[in-house]
Design goal:
Peptide Methionine Sulfoxide Reductase, Chain A, 6-stranded mixed β-sheet, two-stranded antiparallel sheet, 7 helices, globular
Length: about 220
Amino acid sequence: MSKVSVRMMAMMLTVLAGAVACRAGSGASAAVPAPVVDEAKASASAKQTAVVAGGCFWGIQAVFQHVKGVVSVTSGYAGGSVKNPDYETVSGGRTGHAESVQIVYDPSKVSYGELLRVFFSVALDPTEVNRQGPDQGTQYRSVIFYGNDDQKRIAEAYIAQLDQAKVFRGKIATQVTPLQAFYPAEGYHQNYATVHPNDPYIVYNDAPKVANLRKEFPELWK
């Protein structure tokens, strides 16, 4: 099935169900607090990388492109066993990859923990398993792909903090796994929400995430 057909079908199912996928606070019963365990802000500008997955990468990319301190965001694939995967094979659930985003950020302006707070607050519903809203399959699972021990420590501590505080109505299903490789997605996926703001899928599923980022985190908005 083509990209357009898959997304249009997903949008139609969403409308028929009378729900909007992945809105900010979806599944949350309380405000998402800042992480107790985090890295200190760097004293000088630099570049670090974070990789996360949480449903369709269009919306995740759109959210983090508006976070202050983020240098670039790339849609792609991570977590699978096949080298150089393409969208058609990933979307069929045959490679083990998840639709992911690679975030390059300046640690003197935004911390790894702050990025994770945005991730859990407005980018997805972390209690859903192998799906986000209308998109179903392991390629839409929620994952934090850590690149070093500090990222692993911060991510695991934050999930434990949120679960203990019962911030969400259900237990957080987000996996924390080591990053083996990240493969950029095809060009037509990059900046999709910016290039196609009137696409029904973007309007119903992703624009609300960006709007809620601006509302909930004005200090991080750019």
